[in-house]
Design a protein that fits this description.
CATH class of the largest domain: Mainly Alpha
Number of domains: 2
Low-confidence stretches: none
Shape: flat
CATH topology of the largest domain: Tetracycline Repressor, domain 2
Radius of gyration: 20 Å
Helix content: over 70%
Largest sheet: none
Number of strands: 0
Distance between the termini: 50 Å
CATH architecture of the largest domain: Orthogonal Bundle
Strand content: under 5%
Order of helices and strands: HHHHHHHHHHHHHH
CATH superfamily of the largest domain: UbiA prenyltransferase
Structural class: mainly alpha
Oligomer: single chain
Number of helices: 14
């Protein structure tokens, strides 16, 4: 491969990294779950276009987040090699890239899905970029704000499928909202030194690990019964209900263990990794359950 091709490949890779593709893929999975639960009647092409539009909207929000936090990212070990803090990319490129993605995705959502879904997408985008990102250096309560745009994709999937905001979509929103809080807190514990060096006011930085463990337990206690709502409200069946109960018991046991034994970074990393597995299995179980009942 010649030098020009290598340079183009590296540039494309940097643009892709601005969108935080792992986060974008998680958003697409949860939105697809909402569409599946809502028995979407969209054609395969419109379904794919809708999902790609949401991926672009999330990617645009992430690119603007990278632009706004480029000086902070330079101070953190896990982010200092990103395109902007490392100096590989002009910040103005990232700014216009993020704006372009958002400008393309919102009207596409309105046309391919419906205006309600586009409106929810706008709310998620503006909350993440204009409220959550500026609040992070000021207060750990930013995680509560950040959980709102993170929880909107499955509701957007439901509205894309049905054109309405109904209880099943709101239940998915509640699950995602509450799931993010112990997930974020676990990160704040084992990344505490990194966040403190960058001046970010995470829960662990402001209140300490002990209080963070208690908060994590409290939010897990709230999460477990909410994950059971799809079965209790007959949105899903017994298969999902048993799976959600088992996963919730494991999550609750791990959270209690952390508080009682006053565990530290290794435990927080396990909680973080299990939270990813927890969400993935919940949505996989929901997909299977709904599919078996059709």
């Amino acid at each position: 491969m010649n030098a020009r091709a290598l340079s183009l490949s590296a540039t494309a890779s940097d643009f892709l990294s601005l969108t935080k593709p792992r986060l974008s893929s998680l958003v697409m999975v949860t939105m697809a779950g909402g569409m599946w639960l809502g028995h979407s009647q969209l054609s395969p092409i419109r379904t794919l276009t809708t999902l790609l539009a949401v991926a672009c909207l999330v990617g645009g929000a992430n690119a603007l987040n990278c632009f706004m936090e480029r000086d902070v990212d330079r101070l953190m070990v896990r982010t200092r090699n990103r395109p902007l803090p490392s100096g590989r990319m002009d910040p103005q490129l990232a700014l216009w890239f993020g704006i372009l993605l958002a400008a393309i995705s919102v009207p596409t959502l309105s046309i391919e899905a419906n205006p309600l879904t586009a409106l929810l997408g706008c709310i998620a985008f503006l909350t993440y970029v204009c409220v959550y990102t500026p609040l992070k250096p000021r207060s750990y309560t930013a995680m509560l704000i950040g959980a709102v745009p993170g929880a909107l994709p499955p509701l957007m999937g439901w509205t894309a499928a049905t054109g309405r905001i109904d209880w099943p979509g709101l239940v998915l929103f509640a699950i995602l909202f509450l799931w993010q809080l112990p997930h974020f807190i676990a990160i704040s514990i084992y990344r505490m030194e990194d966040y403190a060096a960058a001046g970010l006011k995470s829960l662990a930085v402001e209140r300490g690990p002990a209080a963070s463990r208690l908060h994590l337990l409290a939010y897990t206690v709230a999460l477990v019964p909410v994950t059971l709502l799809p079965a209790l409200l007959r949105i899903a069946g017994w298969f999902y209900g048993v799976l959600a109960l088992g996963l919730g018991a494991v999550a609750l046991g791990m959270a209690i263990q952390g508080v009682v034994a006053k565990l530290g970074n290794a435990w927080a990393r396990r909680m973080f990794r299990f939270s990813l597995l927890h969400l993935a299995l919940l949505f996989a179980g929901l997909w299977l359950d709904v599919g078996m009942r059709r």
